[in-house]
Amino acid sequence: MTTRYGVTRPTEDDIRRGGFSTPWDAPMIPPFPFRFRNAEILTVYWRTDPEAMAFLLPPPLRAMGDVACVHIYKMNDTDWLGPYAEANVMFGAGLGDREGAYSPYLVLSSDIGVAHGREIHGQPKKLGQPRLESRGDLIVGVVERNGIDVITATMPYKQRPSDPVALKPYFDFATNLNLKAVDHIDGSPAIRQLTSRRLADVVVHECWQGPCTVELRANAQLPVFRLPVLEPLQGFYWRADFTLVPGEIIHDYLGEQP
């Protein structure tokens, strides 16, 4: 064992273990579990085109319903990552008797969050600038990429208290389904999986609901406009703590099915 600069050099066994990340003397990817504290979230739902949902969904997942949502997070205190912002676009999906929500688009202001989401979960995260703020009597969430406000969502500021159990009226977004695709260095496929993860130790400190608006603008690098807003449905503002824990493989395109 060699230690320099307060860091221990890894062994081959250390490198083989789960949770290892590079550069090994300043690792990028957090090991599970890690905790999010005092996260502020604006969640807005809208009715969309079921054929558009099905187009964005990898087989053999099936689309469920005709509702999409976006969560715009202000992550105030997160292990490893520190404060950052995130947005997750989702809609209902299922595989067999398993139901949850598939994420076709995610945007983060954190390079660590982008790397972790892509390398571990297979989430299609890209770097951008989500923002969540109060403007007088209005809660406003904006998702910006390439200088374009791709998503703008609003709801009234804290007018109607809500029971947290009402947060998921259309699908169970706490179970997130993703397509993980990683190649070997020679270009051959290394990982082709559908993954599932569920947030743990969720504590909701406050929850409010109300009418919402959702505006989508075209951007070829973040084409959320492909889930058109046919009808804005309802919005929720909530503040919570939760823990990100390991998930599971629910479909392996290259090997035996779980």
Task: Pick out its properties.
globular; 258 residues; 18 strands; Acetoacetate decarboxylase-like; 4-stranded antiparallel β-sheet; single chain; 12-stranded mixed β-sheet; mainly beta
The overall average pLDDT, rounded, is 95
Range of helix content: under 10%
Fold-level CATH name: Acetoacetate decarboxylase-like
Task: Kindly name the structural category.
Answer: mainly beta
Termini gap:
38 Å
Biggest pleated-sheet summary? 12 strands, mixed
Number of helices: 3
For CATH, the homologous superfamily is named as Acetoacetate decarboxylase-like
Radius of gyration: 19 Å
Which series of helices and strands comes N to C? EEHEHEEEEHEEEEEEEEEEE
How many DSSP E strands?
Answer: 18
CATH-defined architecture: Beta Barrel
User: Spans of 5+ residues with little confidence (pLDDT < 50)?
Assistant: none
Task: Spell out the blueprint of helices and strands.
Layout: E1 3-4, E2 7-8, H1 12-16, E3 34-47, H2 50-56, E4 62-75, E5 77-78, E6 84-95, E7 98-108, H3 111-121, E8 125-127, E9 129-135, E10 138-145, E11 148-156, E12 160-161, E13 175-183, E14 189-198, E15 200-210, E16 213-216, E17 231-244, E18 248-252
Parallel strand pairs: 7-8, 7-13
Antiparallel strand pairs: 1-2, 3-4, 3-5, 3-17, 4-6, 6-7, 9-10, 10-11, 11-16, 12-15, 13-14, 14-18, 15-17
Report on the structure:
The protein is mainly beta and 258 residues long. It has one domain (30-252): Beta Barrel (Acetoacetate decarboxylase-like), CATH 2.40.400.10. The protein is 9% helix and 54% strand. The chain is built from three helices and 18 strands. The chain has helices at residues 12-16, 50-56, 111-121, and strands at residues 3-4, 7-8, 34-47, 62-75, 77-78, 84-95, 98-108, 125-127, 129-135, 138-145, 148-156, 160-161, 175-183, 189-198, 200-210, 213-216, 231-244, 248-252. Strands 3, 4, 5, 6, 7, 8, 12, 13, 14, 15, 17 and 18 form a twelve-stranded mixed β-sheet that branches. Helix 3 links the parallel strand 7 and strand 8. The longest helix is centred in the middle third of the chain and has 11 residues, at 111-121. The chain is globular. The N and C termini lie far apart (38 Å). The model has no long low-confidence stretch (mean pLDDT 95).
